Amino acid sequence: MATVLRHVADGVLVHQSELLENNTVVVHGRDGVLLVDAGITGDEMSCLASDLAELGRPVVAGFSTHPDWDHVLWHADLGEAPRFGTARCAAFMRELRSDPDWKAGVAEGLPPEIAGEVPLDAFGLITGLPAETAQIPWDGPQIRIIEHPAHAPGHAALLIEARGVLVAGDMLSDVLIPMFDDTADPIGNYLAGLRMLEAVAEDVDVVVPGHGSVGGADQVRARIDQDLSYVLALREGRVPGDPRLGPTAKPGWEWVSDVHEGQLRRLARISGGGGTPG
Fold first, then answer.
1. Long-range pairs for 259-262 at CB < 8 Å and ≥24 separation?
2. What are phi and psi of 116, to 5 degrees?
3. In 3D, which of 234, 167, 245 has the Cα closest to residue 200?
4. 230: closest CA among 209, 218, 246, 212?
5. Is the dihedral of CA 103, 108, 111, 116 positive or negative?
């Protein structure tokens, strides 16, 4: 089975998983490719490795945008290239893997549809880049690291500057609402992250979210505004008029409304406990 790779910019391709619409980004460099968020099932990653090998393009580096389970996976067929992430992302994974029962805990949280298809041996083996690192250290086009506090510890978006491509991680999705990290100020952190993406929006022609469809130049600002509207609605206690929720949600993504309800309950607890929800 061949992997479906979609060209989104010069030297930049995207493969989307069948489940959860995870986007793996392939960036061509001088001697091989960089893989961003390598995939979620063993078969998909193995097929991707085979296709790249047939093209004579070995994997020379990897990058995980953040430490959610579906962004820190790897397959032996992809080789032993260094797999980078932010220092906070790598530290989170080291702590998780230090638990003797980490593998059972991760397996328990996997979607049942693919629970037996996710390789965990190389799960989370991330090399943390020093906090001051501004670019991914590799032989391809310059890729700026935009670390911010939204969604997950050490979350980073990547800006492939010469290609005008923003790899947004788990933000700016057309199927997922903003999902908050477990912090004392989840709304404030998310707004800070959105502001950092907003600051580079004029340089972006293509946005690749962690889940959902790739957006063109006309979608970059629109997606930032949509995420911003959702977050501000929750901060102000309003019902968000968001097309990703309720009857307008994409078929198969109706469960996002449950995520929203859970976030409302958590924000209420923070506010009731004297915390600041925004």
1. 259/176, 259/177, 259/179, 260/177
2. -90, 5
3. 167
4. 246
5. positive
Question: What is the rounded radius of gyration, in angstroms, for the C-alpha atoms of the chain?
Answer: 18
Q: Are 158 and 166 in contact (CB under 8 A)?
A: yes
Q: What is the pTM of this model?
A: 0.94
- Tens digits of residue pLDDT in 96-114: 999 999 999 999 999 999 9
- The residues, any chain, with a CB within 8 Å of residue 86's CB and separated by 6 or more, are 128, 129, 131, 145, 147, 154, 155, 156
Position 38 scores a pLDDT of 98
Identify the CA nearest to 17 among candidates 95, 118, 87, 154. 118
Shortest CA distance to 73 belongs to which of 95, 46, 52, 99? 46
The tokens describing 114, both together, are 């693919």
Residues 207-217 pLDDT 10s? 999 999 999 99
Is 60:38 a contact under the CB 8 Å cutoff? no
127 and 90 in contact (C-beta within 8 Å)?
Answer: yes
Report the distance separating Cα 194 and Cα 200, nearest Å: 10
Give the Cα separation of 234 and 136 in Å (integer). 35
